[in-house]
Amino acid sequence: TTKPFIxxxxxxxxxxxxxxxxxxxxYKYPLEMRNLKSEEQEKVFKKLKKFIGENTEKLxxxxxxxxxxxxxxxxxxxxxxxxxxxxxxxxxxxxSCLGRFTKSMHFKLTIxxxxxxxxxxxxxxxxxxxxxxxxxxxxxxxxxxxLKMSEDVPINANVFVFNQNDLPLGFGVTAKGSTxxxxxxxxxxxxxxxxxxxxxxRDEERIV
Length: 208
What we know:
Elements: H1 3-28, E1 34-35, H2 38-52, H3 56-60, E2 63-68, E3 71-76, H4 77-82, E4 96-101, E5 107-109, H5 114-117, E6 124-127, H6 129-136, E7 141-142, E8 146-149, E9 158-162, E10 168-174, E11 189-196, H7 199-202, H8 204-207
Parallel strand pairs: 6-9
Antiparallel strand pairs: 1-2, 2-3, 3-4, 4-5, 6-8, 7-11, 9-10, 10-11
């Protein structure tokens, strides 16, 4: 009969797929934590510049960047020294995760970078207390949600979002610049949501 043959064929197919994925991941993203290659570093710096401009130098003062699988970690020299006694193969995480590389090797910032990068923000948006929870549920920001916005923020700029107490909540990209705020309706979209601290609850397993 053809049934055993089909089962054998399916088994062979999934076995080949499993081994392909296993070797692909371990070849492209080795388990050992390592320094970034030049092309990886270039992509990370390009993304960081959109958020913090020339403050990248300040960000890296006394720190280095490491790659572990797809994730990029921001590690202080002191922490690196203290962790040197641990075999790199055994390290699961170290320092602060700034973001990760996708399968197509594009670098994407993650919410875990917020506390590190927000202090170097080029552009900022402050939300009213009444709009804070709306943003923390991954919603976009309307003009009526905004308490204030830093000056000279252009369209398509990456912005950090804060509450009224200057606590960083996340980041996004502007659909309207700061010069447009006084001339638009309250229900006009101003900032497109990209990431927020609510992810620590919504996507805890993925983040950890």
